[in-house]
């Protein structure tokens, strides 16, 4: 830490500088490990069901990336996706996730699964920096999955380049892929974009859902998003459903679909059938 330690007065070192150095050090170590993880195939997909409120059936599934670190155990995406976005690794990682999702969905369909689609998260950097359209086309072709079984979850932050985003989304739509707007309400939301972009579904961010039962303004935001979706003829799903109270609230306001730990945490592909059976018997 000496290199970065700045002398303050006589023999005093600035503590923050040392912390900063350690932070940098940790980060580059993690970065190196992330490169290796990609090569060694330590990044894997977990799956989280999306449930139709009217029927109680699992209609779709979201792919959530996990890093199975040999020493540190399972690491969540919030710890490495931002890093991967900074150093560009998000492009190969993202391609891998899309291909994997298409292959897995095709496999489930071939086994007779009634799932309607699989949702893949695409971060804004990934969406704007890589050729998502080409990746999707190739993944669909390779897997033999018809396009309407694939959904991309994008966030409002892609709106910083609204014209490009509009073009890419229209191309994806033409291909037949579904688009949902993730973390809705937390970003650049403009009703104008909703009208202009070919979006199938809004995903209400879990921060609103979680406080909806004891915070009136969050409850009102959730109701307003459901109303906007209704009037624009979009589907709407709430994420972060953790309790019976959340569920009852969302049922009362006629949300289409729900997702959350109330129905269980994300699981590896092998547990799919078991997890779906359990949810549908609730
Ligand atoms: P997200 O897209 O908003 O995904 C939902 C996150 O909320 C997931 O966290 C999920 O496990 C968690 N979640 C779902 N229901 C509940 C609940 O009831 N309670 C609580 N406390 N949490 C719930 P996760 O898996 O840690 O993912 C975090 C974020 O990382 C995702 O947020 C997404 O933005 C990103 N991410 C995950 N996988 C990928 C990927 O393959 N590509 C990209 N670009 N981003 C990904
Ligand atoms: Ca998502
Ligand atoms: Ca979210
Ligand atoms: Ca997100």
From TrEMBL:
Residues 27-280 form the EAL domain. This is histidine kinase. It comes from Marinicrinis lubricantis. The chain holds residues 200 to 481 of 969 of the full protein.
